[in-house]
Specification:
With 210 residues, this protein is of the alpha/beta class. It has 2 domains: 144 residues, Rossmann fold; 59 residues, no CATH class. Helices cover 46% and strands 16% of the residues. The chain has 9 helices and 7 strands, in the order H-H-E-H-E-H-E-H-E-H-E-H-H-E-E-H. The strands form 2 sheets. It has a 5-stranded parallel sheet with strand order 2-3-4-1-5. A two-stranded antiparallel ribbon has the order 6-7. Strand 6 and strand 7 form a beta hairpin. Helix 4 runs parallel beside helix 5 and helix 8 crosses helix 9. The longest helix is centred in the last third of the chain and has 15 residues. The chain binds adenosine-5'-triphosphate and magnesium ion (MG). The site of magnesium ion (MG) has 4 residues, from helix 3.
Length: 210
């Protein structure tokens, strides 16, 4: 199993950064409620991971779809059938990852489904930006922005993985990893890090040392 698989966050406490989102989800959990949600932000900052964490923390069924599933014929019928089917627990959640890959007409179709089965089926949609998301979908979701991972949070997770793997890592190695995984905005400013990339570089380093 590669590091990305092995160190997929399972609980809120495994997530680094994204504090406001975690706080909001914790209070939803306390109140026993769940909303339709949209997670947007840059690559490798925990959007898909958070959906998996929700599955575990809320102890619900999560059915996942990704961009390549949206190409399948009849995909919307499949999603609607799943939404219709009453869950064993209070809720089920349907994760639509890379949601911007759905056409606008597919997205529009989903509005009615979100409304009709909302008592038992919550949609979690993820995307990199909201520009190509149907306004009707945006209006139905609680919207959470996931910012690129900040340096102390990236270091915290990398050090955690090193500890689990029994690997000693120098500050120089950490800097090299971070340097390779920078997220840069249109003005050339570093806005944070892609943690998926950080973890891949750490794994490469680890493999070289074994
Ligand atoms: N905030 C985070 N806390 C802990 N681990 C994280 C976090 N963000 C990313 N990771 C790590 O990076 C991997 C990739 O993260 P994830 O798939 O959640 O990113 P994403 O935001 O959905 O990215 P993309 O937009 O590319 O789909 C995860 O398996 C996890 O190991
Ligand atoms: Mg994702």
């Amino acid at each position: 199993m590669n590091f990305e698989e092995k160190y997929k966050p399972e609980k809120f406490s495994d997530i680094v950064g994204q504090d406001e989102t975690v706080e909001s989800l914790k209070s939803m959990k306390e109140n026993g409620e769940l909303s339709h949600m949209l997670f947007f932000g840059s690559w490798g900052c925990g959007k898909t991971s958070m959906a998996l964490v929700i599955k575990n923390e809320f102890d619900i069924e999560l059915i996942k779809f990704r961009a390549h599933d949206f190409m399948r014929n009849g995909i919307m019928d499949i999603i609607i059938t799943i939404a219709k089917h009453v869950p064993q627990k209070t809720y089920k959640a349907v994760l639509l990852d890379d949601f911007e890959k759905l056409s606008i007409s597919q997205q529009e179709l989903l509005r009615g489904t979100m409304d009709t089965y909302s008592k038992t089926c919550k949609f979690i949609v993820t995307c990199n930006n909201t520009a190509s998301i149907d306004p009707g979908i945006l209006s139905r979701c609680r919207i959470y922005y996931f910012q690129a991972i900040q340096e102390p949070d990236a270091i915290k997770r990398l050090k955690f993985i090193c500890k689990e793997e029994g690997l000693k890592i120098s500050d120089q190695d950490l800097n090299r990893i971070l340097n390779n995984a920078k997220r840069i905005n249109s003005e050339g400013k570093v806005i944070g890090f892609d943690l998926r990339q950080c973890i891949k570089y750490l794994e490469d380093l680890c493999n070289r040392r074994r």
